[in-house]
Amino acid sequence: MKINGQLILNEFHDKDQPLSKGKSDRIDKALMRFFICCEELGYVNSKVLRELEATKNLTLTLNRWSSLNHLSIWNFTILTPTNKEYIYQLLDLSSNSHTGEFIAEKIEDILIRVGAKKFSAIVSDNGAKLRELIKSINVKGDGIVPFCKIRWT
After folding, report:
1. What is the value of pTM for the model shown?
2. Handedness of CA 126, 105, 135, 58 (dihedral sign)
3. Is the model more confident about 116 or about 138?
4. Which of 3-7, 29-33, 110-114, 141-145 has the lowest mean pLDDT?
C-alpha cells in the first residue's frame, strides 16, 4: 500500500508480530547514525549562520551549470569580507522555469533569510535579464551593488 507514492511500514513488517532481534538492532543502528549525522550537520549550519549574522558586507554569488545528465544546477554562495566562502544553497532547478523572476525569487529568499542589509553585492554571469532583476532587488536591499558580467555584449 502506498500513500502519496510513499511506501508505508506495513509493507515491510506485520504489525501484529514483534520485530526479530536482528531487525531491531539494524533499525537502532540506522536511527543512531541518522541522529549523529544530523546533529553534526546542524552544528556546522548553526555555526555558519551565527557567523553570517555577525558579518556585514557579504557578497552573494550565483552560477548555473548543466550536469552530464542535463540537470540544471544552481549554486548560491555567500562570501565574507575575510574571504570565507559558504555554499548557502545548491539546487537542482531542472523542473522549474528559469525565468529571471523565478531566480530573483530564489535570490530574494536568501536575502530575507540572511538579512538584505548585510549584503553589499550580488555577482552573477547570467545575462542582462537577471541583471535587471538584481537591480530591482537593490531597492529592497538598501544599497546592494549588482555586478553582472555579460559575456555576449
Report:
1. 0.63
2. negative
3. 116
4. 141-145
pLDDT at 136 over 50: yes
Starting at the edge strand found earlier in the chain, the sheet holding 145-148 runs 85-92, 72-79, 58-66, 119-124, 145-148
Q: Give the cell for residue 90.
A: 545548491
**Would you tell me how many other CB atoms lie within 10 Å of the CB of residue 14?**
8
| Measured CA angle at 98 (ends 109, 95), to 5 deg | 95
**Three-class SS of residue 142?**
coil
32 phi and psi angles, rounded to 5 deg: -65, -45
- Can you say how many angstroms the Cα of residue 147 is from the centroid of all Cα atoms in its chain? 21
| Distance, CA of 64 to CA of 124 (rounded, Å) | 9
pLDDT digits (tens, 9 = 90+) for 110-124: 888 888 888 888 887
Share of the chain above pLDDT 70, in %: 63
Distance of CA 135 to the CA centre of its chain: 22
- Determine how many CB atoms are found less than 10 A away from the CB of residue 40: 10
Instruction: Classify burial at 124, counting beta carbons within 10 Å of its beta carbon; exposed 0-12, middle 13-18, buried 19 or more.
Output: buried
8 Å CB contact between 119 and 59: yes
